[in-house]
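Lab channel / #folding
Pinned by the channel admin:
"Please post every new chain as: sequence first, then the structure tokens as a reply. Keep commentary short and put observations after the output so the thread stays searchable."

First post following the new format, from NK:
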Amino acid sequence: MSRAFVKEPDGDQAVPELPDRVHSPHVNYVTPAGLRLLQESVERLLARRKALGGDPSAGNKKDLMRVDRDLRYCEERVRRAVLIDPAGQPKDEVHFGAVVEAATTDGRRMTFAIVGEDEADAAEGKVSWVSPLARAVAEARVGDTVVWKRPAGEVELTIVAIR
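Reply from TO:
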């Protein structure tokens, strides 16, 4: 069969399909703040989609595809969210939502919060509950020493405080 009369997309019309963003295989535990961040992302993406007009013919097909993909991802993350309120967690052990203060063997101190994957931000001292650091301190109590296995080598941490 001849392809002579099949319309090929023009250079500026050809937009490759964007694959969906991959979801984590882990349960989507979220703090109240993490759930708010996800919901705000959905609202921001809906506003962006509206601003684009929802019309792929207006030369913004690629932007619209990206917004739609990210919107599907965020809506699914909200749908899968399992809200854990840190206020309801025990304070005598490290659990999801805890703020942990720990000391290394050379006396350096670090403080971090254990949060959901979407809320994690190392620069803000927020680590994902599935991270090696969070797993190392999980269920530890004040005074316990744990081993944090990192690619750069193991570090012993003593739990100083749990909030």
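NK: The chain has a mean pLDDT of 91.
TO: also worth noting, The first strand starts at residue 28 and ends at 30.
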